[in-house]
Amino acid sequence: MPKPYFGKQPLPDYKPSDKVRDALKAWEDALKLEEKTRHAARKALAEELKADLDLPYAAVAAHPIVPWTEATLRIIGTEYKVPPRQPNKAKKTD
C-alpha cells in the first residue's frame, strides 16, 4: 500500500511555448515603451510650467488631455524643479 504524501506536491515541469514567450516579450517591450513615453510627457508638462510661471497647476490638470491631477502635477513639478506658483496671484491681462 502506498504511503500517504503530506505536504507540498511536486510541480510538473513547465516549458512555455514560443507563442507564450513571444506574447510575454511583446508585453515587456510595451511596458518599457510606456514608461519611457510617460516620463517624456511628464517632462514636457514640467517644461511648460517652467516657461509660464503664472500658469496654475490646476489649469493644466483641468485640461481634458492631461491624465494627472493637480496633486500629481505638483509632484512632477518638484521632480523637475519647477519654480513654485505665486498663490492668489491674478493672471495678468493686458
How does the SSE layout of this entry go?
Elements: H1 18-51, H2 57-62, H3 70-79
Structure description:
This protein has three helices and no strands. The protein has a domain at 19-79. The chain is mostly helical and 94 residues long. The longest helix is centred in the middle third of the chain and has 34 residues, at 18-51. The protein is elongated. It has helices spanning 18-51, 57-62, 70-79. The mean pLDDT is 90.
Strand content: under 5%
Stretches where pLDDT is under 50 for at least 5 consecutive residues are none
Q: Which radius of gyration do the C-alpha atoms yield? A: 25 Å
Give the overall shape.
elongated
Tell me how many strands there are.
0
> What can be said about the biggest beta sheet?
none
- The ordered string of helix (H) and strand (E) elements is HHH
Instruction: Provide mean pLDDT, rounded.
Output: 90
Measured as a percent range, the helix fraction is 40-55%
Question: Kindly, what is the distance between the CA atoms of the first and last residues, rounded to a whole number of angstroms?
Answer: 96 Å
Quickly give the structural class.
mainly alpha
Number of alpha- plus pi-helical segments: 3
